[in-house]
Amino acid sequence: MNFSVSEAVFLLLAFATVFSASLVIAARNPINSAMALVATFFFLAAIYAQLLAHTIAVLQILVYAGAIMVLFLFVIMLLSLTDLGAPGPRVTFHRVVGGAAAFGLFVALVLALLRWHANPVTGRPGSGLRFGTLEAVGGLLYTRWLLPFEAVSLLLLVAMVGAVVVAKPRV
Amino acid sequence: MSGFVHGLSYGAVIVTVLMTVTAFSLWFERKLAARMQSRLGPTLVGPAGILQPIADVLKLLQKEDIVPLKADAVLFNLAPPVAVVCAIGVAAAVPFSPTVVAADLDVGVLYVLAIGAVTVLPVFTAGWASNNKLALLGGMRAVAQSVSYEVPLVLAALVPVILAGSMRIGAIVQFQSDHHWFVAWPFFLGIPAFVIFVLAMLAEANRIPFDIPEAESELVAGVTTEYTGMKFALFYMAEYVHTLVASAVASALFLGGWDGGPFRPGLHWMVLKTLFLFAGLYWIRWTLLRFRSDQLMRLCWRYLVPSSIALVATAGVWVVFVG
To answer: Which residues of A touch B111 (CB under 8 A)?
Structure first.
C-alpha cells in the first residue's frame, strides 16, 4: 500500500465527510444535527477544492454553510424544537418507504462501483486545471445553460414573492 | 508542490504578523480611547503601557475555565477557536504585495465573502450552547444582522469586481495600479461602494455602531456572557482580527492595495492603508453610539440594499459604455 499525498488527504476528507454526515442523523438535538451538517459542507467543499473545482468549493461554503444553514438554525431556534415528545411507533409508513429508497440507492451504487474500472484521465495535460475556474463555470452557465439558469432564477423570484405573501397579513 | 510550500510559509508569516498587530492594536485602541476621553489609558506595564496586552493575556490564562452545567459542552468549547479560525481564514486570499500572499485564488473575492459569512456560525453556536437567555438573544441578533448585512456587503464588493473584470484580488489591485484607485475614479461608484462595504463589514464583525449582539447595557455581554478566561479572549481576538483583515480587504478592493500612487509600490503601502483604515474604525467605535435593532434593519434594507443594487447596475453600464 503506498498512497500519494493527495490520496491520503482525500481519504482523510472522505472519512471526515462521512463521519459528520452520520452525526447529522445520529444527533438527538436538531441544533447539533445542523452544526454537523455545516461540518459536512465544509469537508465536501475541501473535496471539491482538491478536485480543482474552486468555484464550486467556495459557493458551497457561501451558499450552503453561510446562508442556508444560518437560516436553518434561525428557524430551528424560532420553533424551539428541543422537546421532541414521546417516541411514536417504531414502524411507520415513512420509515418503510425511506428505508426502501435508501436500500435501492445503496444497491444502485454498489452495482455502479462493481462495473467501474479505473481508466486514465483523458484530454490534454493541464486542461483539467481550467475546468473549475470562475471563467470556465461562468462561461458554461451564461452560454450553454443560459435558459435553465434563468429559469432557476425565476423560480427563486417566485419563491421570494411567495414568502412575502405568506408573511404579510394583508397584501 | 512549490505553491503549497509558498502558501504555507507566507500563510504562517501573515498569521503571525496579524496576531501580533491585533495584540498591540488593543494597546493602541485603549490609548486612543483614553485620549478621546481626556484620560491617560494604560501607563504602568512597560514604557507608556505598551506591554499591557501581554499582561492581559497572562492574566486571562490564569482564569478558571468554567463550562456551565447545562451547556452543550462540545459546541460551547468548539465555538471560540472556530471563530478565530474563520477570522484568520479570510486573510489567506488577501494579497499584501504581488508576492506576499498565501493563495491569490481566482475566486478570491468570493472566498473572502464566503468565509466572512461563516463567521456568524460560531457566534450563534456560542449563544445557543451557553444555555443562557441573554447569550441566546445575542446569538439570534447576530444571525439576523449577519443575514441582512450580507446582501449589501456582497453587492458593494461586486462593484470593484465589475470594474476590474476579475475576482482575483491581486488582479483588482493591479487594475487600480494601472488605472486609478476606485475611490479616485470613478469616484461616484467607488466612494459609495467603499462606504457601504465598510459599514456592512462593521456589522458583520459585530462592532460598534453595530454591536447589538453583545449590547452590554441590555444583554450583559451577549454571546460571550458565559465564557471565561482564554475562551472569552478568543472571541475578543476573533472580532479584532476580523476587523483588521476586513480593513485589508477594503484597502485592496477600493484603496489600491500595494499601489503607492506616484511613489514606488510595495508592501508598506498596503500595511499603511490597512492600519489607517483600522484606526479609523477605532475612531468610529469610540465616537458613535449603538444602533437599536430595528434601526439597524431599516438602515440595511431601506438604504444600503437599494443603493448597492443601483451601484452594481451603474457599474455595469459604466464598464460597457466608458471603461
So the answer is: 58
